[in-house]
Amino acid sequence: MLEKSFVPYGAYWSSPFCRWQGALASSHALELAGEVARAALERRQIDPRSLDALVLGMTVPQRSSFYGAPWLAGLLGAPGITGPTVAQACATSARALATAAAEVELAGAASVLVVACDRTSNGPHVYYPQPGAPGGTGAAEDWVPDAFQRDPWAKNAMIQTAENVAREAGFGREEQDAVALLRSEQYRAALADDRAFQRRYLEPVSLRRGKREPVVVAEDEGVHPTTREGLARLQPVLEGGTVTFGAQTHPADGNAGLIVANRERARELSRDAAIEVRVVAFGSARVEKGYMPKAVVPAARAALAQAGIAIGDCKAIKTHNPFAVNDLYFCRELGLPLDAINHYGSPLVYGHPQGPTGVRLTLELIEQLAISGGGYGLFSGCAAGDTAMALVVRVG
């Protein structure tokens, strides 16, 4: 259990998440994250030069991203700080947060900035030279789609992991469609009153296009209208399967950030010092080959055990649910009704830019707890390699 790690209330943000090949498809993910972070810190009257360190999380390389966190620090106006670049597939956000918390808990840092970003659109095409191969022909890889299509250890595509769990657990097409419809309805609650909930954390992105007026992206792009009838018309992606495009997430682009600090510094940077947000515990897990959606359960149990609480003690729960199967399995194993989790939306609806997904879910978790009077909150999300990470926060 952590004792010294806090998130200053309001010292966090997320860009809108934009669909594959959408509004952010031509923006360099790291440069855009620097612009968004700099503007967000300025609006919150936080001097980036006052921070002690930086952790960058990203999974899809961009040009010059070898320079990672030090470059990002310069872009956001803090050239005197540095830190690591973290990549752990879809668990990158949780790992970056854990890294920042370790800096506070163990290294004595007063405040550490976490920024996570990814652009799944227009991912790199990689060529691996093989001079000793016949004809000297090398091997090629499309970084993003090839990763989705084949786990080199389990020898399956990610969607196959959802089909494996659905088959073993007995989750049919109708149950998955019901989850997709429910999550869409929950997301609509975040749009009520002119997006009142999302305005608590969503940071608009200004895109410069030559000499023309900047284009401002203020809302998620790629959220499809969802109806029971529309879901029923979709065909399974795999022949003989049950998972449709309506019951899985879509690749997206975006970024998100937050500050992890000690208690004193968190109070100084907080939008409301009466609200205290403590990072309590982390957990991770790995399950058998080809059953990725299962991993959210042991990861959640590990984080809850570290926190010394039970699932019933959590007033809010968020999951990274690339497939509706994830939530079906999570809720069945932990004894929860499906509508007990993912209030205000989830990646199943607004997309998955990999690196920043968990940060956005964590700050949505914090805001939900703040609205409901505080308490414990849990985030758990699966990741490539049949793994998952989870974290517990407490808002007081």
Structure description:
The chain has helices at 29-43, 68-75, 92-107, 143-149, 158-169, 173-190, 192-195, 228-233, 263-269, 296-307, 324-334, 347-350, 357-371; strands spanning 12-14, 18-19, 53-57, 85-86, 111-119, 125-128, 139-142, 205-207, 215-217, 252-261, 277-286, 314-320, 375-383, 387-395. It starts with 11 loop residues before the first strand and ends with a strand. Strands 1, 2, 3, 4, 5 and 10 form a six-stranded mixed beta sheet that branches. Strands 11-14-13-12 form a four-stranded mixed beta sheet. Strands 6-7 form a two-stranded antiparallel ribbon. By secondary structure, the chain is of the alpha+beta class. The protein has a domain at 153-194 and 276-395: Peroxisomal Thiolase, Chain A, domain 1 (3-Layer(aba) Sandwich). β8 (205-207) and β9 form a beta hairpin. α1 (29-43) crosses α2 and α6 crosses α11 (324-334).
Features:
396 residues; alpha+beta; Peroxisomal Thiolase, Chain A, domain 1; 6-stranded mixed beta sheet; 20% strand
Query: Which consecutive residue ranges, at least 5 long each, have pLDDT under 50?
Result: none
Structural class based on helices, strands and sheet pairing? alpha+beta
Number of helices: 13
Tell me, what is the CATH class of the domain at 153-194 and 276-395? Alpha Beta
Q: What pattern of helices and strands is seen along the backbone?
A: EEHEHEHEEEHHHHEEHEHEHEHHHEE
Which SSEs are present, and which pair or pack?
Layout: E1 12-14, E2 18-19, H1 29-43, E3 53-57, H2 68-75, E4 85-86, H3 92-107, E5 111-119, E6 125-128, E7 139-142, H4 143-149, H5 158-169, H6 173-190, H7 192-195, E8 205-207, E9 215-217, H8 228-233, E10 252-261, H9 263-269, E11 277-286, H10 296-307, E12 314-320, H11 324-334, H12 347-350, H13 357-371, E13 375-383, E14 387-395
Parallel strand pairs: 3-4, 3-5, 12-13
Antiparallel strand pairs: 1-10, 2-10, 5-10, 6-7, 8-9, 11-14, 13-14
Helix pairs in contact: 1-2, 6-11
